[in-house]
Amino acid sequence: MSDDENRRRFELLVMPHLDAAYNLARWLTHNDHDAQDVVQDALVRAMHYMGGFRGDNARAWVLQIVRHACYSWLKENRPAERLFLDDADEPAHDIAAPASDEPHSAAMRKADRLQINQAIAALPAAYREVLVLRELEDLSYNDIARIADIPVGTVMSRLARARGLMREALTPIARPVLRTVARSTQAGRTT
Amino acid sequence: MKSHTDAQRVNAFVDRELDLTSQLEIEERMRQDVGLREQVEDICQLRKAILESAEYHAAPAALRNRMAGLMAPKPTARKQLGDKVVAMPRWLGWRPTVASFGLMAVLVMAVNLAWLRPSHDDRLLDDVVASHVRSTLGQHLVDVASSDHHTVKPWLSSKLDFSPPVNELQIPDSVFLGGRVDYLGGRPVAALVYRQGAHVVNSFVWPSTGNDSKPDFSTERGFRTAHWSQGGMNHWVISDVNVEEFQAVVRAIQLADRDH
Questions:
Q1: Class of domain A87-170
Q2: Domain that residue B158 falls in
Q3: Which of B7, B53, B66 sits opposite A160 (nearest CB)?
Q4: What CATH class has A3-77?
Q5: Residue A160 and residue B64: Cβ atoms within 8 Å?
Q6: Cα–Cα distance between B97 and B116 in angstroms, integer?
Q7: Residue B108 falls within a domain, yes or no?
Q8: Nearest-CA residue of chain A relative to B42?
């Protein structure tokens, strides 16, 4: 494949996903400078692999390469960060369903931007990436499985766990609250 | 408390990642189970909070420039571009570059459209199938049961922000059962329900912004579907009748609308 041809394919296939690539790298590395470097390295690598790309899902393909580059970077530069979860880490129980008197959703509404961003940043990387890919990139479980190189069942359990941890982080520490009056019913489709 | 697989299933339910049967099963359970409803509500609230507040880090301009720099043509070519006093033959050398930018823009748009289109239609198709199955499970076939379109049309118009075409179908074995309001692709639509022999036919209608189009037939999970635009309305029809009857139904709906 000629250089021009390569460049053209790169602009078509890869560049549209630059935002997604950077967003993932930024959430995984926690800082702008390194995220830029990692993305650049990853995309240069992508350019070399491009001849081999025959698939139809360029976004998942690009993010897979970027994610891999992020993990290499983390391993080298942030050895303290827990990257991989043993199976033992996968929860035997999920964070409890609502147990307190205050509905969690009420707590969630009160959580502010800063809290939410901090809570995401504090998640272990394996949960954080799944959450970011699902909520911020709106990717399917299948795509996430491919990008994070894990089975779909694991995407399902990690996402549930990630949300459980988020809920826990955003729920104010137990304190006496006035019992809330039953909320008006919001369930059900309007028909 | 729910077992952990259950919590995962509820999450997958909210993400619409369960197979149709499980999806409907949970919907059904939600009717009775307040705890389950709260769990679902909880996850939705969390998702909403994240979506509203979590920082989306778009690629900074610096990175974009760096990438563009990597892809830029060889330095010699760049010098030519920077040269202000350009001889005519050299100027001709620009044209492919300019043309390729234009072509690139068109290609990028085409690719985006090609990638976006199916996913939107797929999602709609999923909605159509789910809505059809739900209605045939006998839970909620029609809101207004009448074989008279003069009753059904005003009722639907009063519930919607448009007035759908409502007609009986002039084909053998067709019975008009009535209509209901349903949700497809996040908007309220009119659902007209017919019985064709022993089979239920759901015909969904809502305003379209596009041009008229011919019916596009497909089969999804054993159901036949067709969708098209006509007279400023989108139509999606779904049933499990055999292919000949289904085509007859679609034709009858088109004809009835045209003559209306």
A1: mainly alpha
A2: 118-259
A3: B7
A4: mainly alpha
A5: no
A6: 28
A7: no
A8: A105
- Locate the chain B residue with the closest alpha carbon to A133: B56
Inside any domain, residue B226: yes
Min distance B28 CA to chain A CA atoms (Å): 11
B48 plus B123 within the same structural domain: no
Closest-CA distance, A41 to chain B, in angstroms, reads: 10
Structure tokens of A103? 């509905």
Asked if residue B253 and residue B129 are part of one domain, the reply reads yes
Contacts of B1 in chain A (CB under 8 A): 93, 96-97
- A186: contact with B, CB 8 A cutoff: yes
Does this model's pTM top 0.80? My answer is: no
Residues A22 and A36: beta-carbon distance below 8 Å: yes
Find, in chain B, the residue whose alpha carbon is nearest to that of A166: B46
Residue A84 burial (CB < 10 Å; 0-12/13-18/19+)? exposed
pLDDT (tens, 9 = 90+) of chain A, 191 residues, equals: 567 777 788 888 889 999 999 999 999 999 999 999 999 999 988 887 777 777 778 999 999 999 999 999 998 888 877 666 654 455 544 444 444 445 555 555 556 888 999 999 999 999 999 999 999 999 999 999 999 999 999 999 999 999 999 999 988 654 444 444 444 444 444 44
- CA-nearest residue to B13 within chain A is A156
Residues in chain A: 191
Structure tokens at A102: 């205050």
Q: Give yes or no for a contact between B45 and A105, defined as CB atoms under 8 angstroms apart.
A: yes
Inspect the interface and report whether the beta carbons of A135 and B55 lie closer than 8 Å.
Answer: no
B59–A104 C-beta distance less than 8 A: no
Most distant CA pair in chain B: distance in Å?
Answer: 80
Are B42 and B132 members of one domain?
no
Instruction: Tell me how far apart the alpha carbons of residues B249 and B260 are, in angstroms, rounded to a whole number.
Output: 16
CB contact under 8 A, B1 and A141: no
| Cα B233 from chain centre | 14
